[in-house]
């Protein structure tokens, strides 16, 4: 069978499974819609959290980033993994004990203020839309190549699927769908990695293959260093980013992960605080399988890419080049008229434009793996993008229905009306997400990095200070969140859209827009602590509540009202 037939078969089967699960686990109450009734077992929740957290950026874009950036790409690996550890140890158990559905709910109650709740709602929606744009873009890329439709059509197909199971099933439907999606995405990620590791190094374990010798006796990394420097690129193992930028991007991704509302809400779906800790441990294990494999896939893909493209006649170009050219994600421009594909670092001589988001998806084709493996990777990429998109859309819809309407503007609405508004909010969010996927502000992992920076600059200080500081009051939290997200968003917009050509010499202290969330977070902390010190302390009831959250024993069920 050809690739397209296999793709229709595997993607169709996986979609039928997701939709079947959504219908089977349809939410009938706000508790089921928001937190799956709070009765999900830790192992299941760990798997769903892993799928929720490993987005199109993790599956499609991260190995591509490492493949092109070499050592510098490791910041994404360190930041996202470290951030999950931070979230699991520092925040999840305390937030679960507090027993609220959403981050704005926590902020509103902890800071005894509707204004604080509204600021948190705006931040949650802003961060979630930025993040979901990257997911929908990933969906569009997969569909455009494997179903041979344009990216816009691919995004629209993805919107329809997410709309169905996110709007219908809520968190209950999403949780069990994400378990299936994790199984699909991890299988799709590991199978080609094992194949290619065996082909290149003879070792079936990609993580070990990454440090092994090739058939010619040379080390994989040494060979890759030689290949890229020969073409004028910086050595794969040497970084060009300033140390402060590496530090800030890693920190922004870490604290951004810990402030991501769609991941935090997963810890409310388990029965007890103890289960929140257990599910965090399981999730870390499930995440590590993919994350420890990504550097190996990056090295395999870059090696195979250079060997099949550089200095080869275009007339003899492998089929994968022609296939990806149709999507517009690979372009060849014969600048010197010799009919040879010049892939070099010098911009005036380089004839190949290769979108880094295709590396994982094209990897099986470059390595000439069987057609079913190529189609399996397509199904995995879609599972990764759709699982995270669904979690984000749920955050947006609950922020609108629960925090904005029920808790602020329309407190008298019934549970049935609240559920209806949640579904309407999710439907509207799908449309906006689709638009952002068709017109993205960058490649997938870059867009996602912006979302993490915004989360770092807004939520993380408010949550940390809310849990660990009895003195933190509503004035401090509001001032910190508004200042943090404003300064970070302004910096990103200025250097990505207004002065897009600016380089490291024009950035503040050499910190890139992807890393500026770390600065925004520090500003948030300083403003929040300063304002809190100059204003009235919170009421004693709030201080007692903070004391209660930090005691590790006991926990109530997550509640909405």
SSE layout:
Layout: H1 3-24, H2 30-35, H3 42-53, H4 56-69, H5 74-98, H6 103-110, H7 114-146, H8 151-201, H9 206-209, H10 220-230, H11 243-258, H12 261-264, H13 273-291, H14 294-309, E1 312-313, H15 319-325, E2 330-332, E3 340-341, E4 352-354, H16 359-366, H17 371-409, H18 415-438, H19 444-468, H20 474-498, H21 516-534, H22 540-550
Antiparallel strand pairs: 1-3, 2-4
Helix pairs in contact: 1-8, 1-17, 3-8, 3-13, 4-7, 4-14, 4-17, 4-19, 5-11, 5-13, 5-19, 6-7, 6-19, 7-8, 7-17, 7-18, 7-19, 7-20, 8-17, 8-18, 10-14, 11-19, 11-21, 14-16, 16-17, 17-18, 19-20, 19-21, 20-21
Structure commentary:
- Helix content is 71%, strand content 2%.
- It has 22 helices and 4 strands.
- The strands form 2 sheets. The chain has a two-stranded antiparallel ribbon.
- The longest helix is centred in the first third of the chain and has 51 residues.
- The chain is globular.
- The C terminus is likely disordered.
